[in-house]
Write a structure and sequence with these properties.
With about 350 residues, the protein is of the alpha/beta class. Helix content is about 30%, strand content about 15%. β10, α11 and β11 form a beta-alpha-beta unit. InterPro entries: AB_hydrolase_fold.
C-alpha cells in the first residue's frame, strides 16, 4: 500500500515536520492516496505491460478493434506533452464521449484500461495522464521521480488538462457534437468543475461523475481522514508548513510544499454545488482512504442543489469500488449506458433491470 511506502524523512523545519501517524493519513486521502489502479476481482492483471492492448499511432500489426486503446499525445502548457489513451466505442452507434481524469501518482491506466472501461459500450473514451506519466508504467507511488514530485500540484495539472482538452476540441472541429461526460477518479474529481467550465463552449457537458471522490474541498476531506486515524495534530503541522515562508520546492511527506499549498486552498464543494451539470457520485462504505464522514458531509452541502445530483453508495466496497457485490465501476458505466440510450430519463433515473 501507498501508506507503507511513504518516505517519512523531510527537509521541513522541525516545527513543521509531521509524525509517523501521518504516513497513513496522507495515503488515506482522495487527494493523495489512490495512485495505483484498483485491484479487480475479474481476470488477473496482464503479466506485463507488453501484454496490454495499447498501441501507438501507426504501430504495425497491432489489433485494430474498437476495444483497443491507442496512445494519443496532447499538448499541455509550456511545451509539455500529455500521453493520453483513447478508445473508440465498443458497440455502435457512438452516443457520447467520456473524458477521464485519473487519480494521483505516476502510474498509468493502460495496464487495466480495457477491463476498467469495458462497460462503456457506446462511448468514445479519452483518458488523460499528467505530464511525465507513461500510461503503460506501473511505478509505485513512493518511486515517482523527483522531477515529477516537484511539478505535481493541482494548479499545474489543471492548466495542462485544460490545454489538452482545448487541443482535443480543435482537432475535433467539424465532427458531430456529442454529449460529454467528465469522470474524475479519486484526486481527479478535484479538477472536474474547472474543466467543465473550460470546455463548455466547445463541447456539451452532459454530466460529471465522481468515483471515490468525496466532493469536499480537499483540505476538509483530509482533516476528516486525519481525525479518523487519530492524526489531527500531524495534519495541523502540514498546515503550519503551508503557512511558513519555506519555498514551494521543499519536500514534505513525499510531496512538494507547493502541492500542499494548492491543496490547502483548493475549492471543490461549492463549485460542484453551484454547477449546472448533473452529478453522479459513487463511493464504497468500506473505503479506507476517504472516510464516510466526508461523503456524508458533502451530501449535506448538496441539499437544495439546482441541477440533478445522485449517489450510488456501494455496501462493503473499497476505494477502488470493489466489494462483495462485485465491480462497482461497471455499475457506474451501466448507469451511463442506460442514460445514453434514453437521455430524457436523466442520469439519476433508476437503471432498468436487464
Amino acid at each position: 500500500m501507498f501508506a507503507l511506502k511513504l518516505r517519512l524523512t523531510s527537509t521541513a523545519p522541525a516545527h513543521a515536520r509531521v509524525g509517523p501517524a501521518l504516513a497513513l493519513c496522507v495515503a488515506a486521502l482522495l487527494l493523495a492516496g489512490c495512485a495505483r489502479p484498483p485491484a479487480f476481482s475479474a481476470a488477473p492483471p496482464a503479466a506485463s505491460v507488453a501484454d496490454v492492448h495499447v498501441r501507438a499511432p501507426g504501430q504495425e500489426g497491432a489489433p485494430a478493434d474498437a476495444t483497443s486503446f491507442m496512445l494519443r499525445p496532447l499538448p499541455g502548457t509550456d511545451g509539455a506533452v500529455l500521453q493520453a489513451l483513447q478508445r473508440a466505442e465498443r458497440t455502435p452507434p457512438l452516443r457520447y464521449r467520456v473524458v477521464v481524469v485519473p487519480g494521483s501518482g505516476c502510474a498509468g491506466l493502460a495496464p487495466i484500461a480495457d477491463r476498467y472501461f469495458a462497460g462503456l459500450l457506446h462511448a468514445q473514451v479519452l483518458v488523460l495522464h499528467k505530464p511525465g506519466v507513461d500510461p503503460r508504467a506501473r511505478t509505485a507511488p513512493g518511486d515517482c521521480t523527483r522531477g515529477f514530485v516537484q511539478q505535481d500540484r493541482l494548479s499545474t495539472w489543471l492548466a495542462h488538462a485544460r490545454a489538452a482538452l482545448r487541443a482535443d476540441a480543435v482537432q475535433r472541429q467539424g465532427e458531430p457534437a456529442l454529449p460529454l461526460v467528465l469522470v474524475g477518479i479519486s484526486e481527479g474529481a478535484e479538477l472536474l468543475p474547472s474543466l467543465a467550465t473550460a470546455v463548455q463552449g466547445t463541447a456539451p457537458v452532459a454530466a460529471l461523475v465522481l468515483l471515490s471522490g468525496s466532493g469536499l474541498d480537499p483540505r476538509e476531506a483530509g482533516a476528516l481522514q486525519a481525525e479518523r486515524l487519530g492524526a489531527s495534530a500531524d495534519w495541523r503541522r502540514i498546515g503550519q508548513a503551508v503557512a511558513s515562508p519555506a519555498p514551494d520546492s521543499q519536500a514534505l511527506q513525499g510531496r512538494s510544499l507547493g502541492y500542499w499549498r494548492d491543496l490547502w486552498a483548493w475549492p471543490l464543494a461549492q463549485p460542484l454545488r453551484d454547477g449546472p451539470w448533473p452529478l453522479l457520485q459513487t463511493w464504497g462504505d468500506a473505503d479506507a482512504l476517504v472516510p464516510p464522514a466526508a461523503y456524508e458531509a458533502f451530501a449535506q452541502r448538496m441539499q437544495g442543489r439546482a441541477a440533478p445530483w445522485c449517489v450510488l453508495r456501494l455496501s462493503g466496497a473499497d476505494h477502488g469500488l470493489q466489494g462483495p457485490a462485485g465491480d462497482g465501476v461497471q455499475r457506474v458505466w451501466a448507469r451511463l449506458e442506460a442514460w445514453a440510450r434514453a437521455p430524457a430519463r436523466g442520469l439519476c433515473a433508476p437503471v432498468p433491470a436487464p
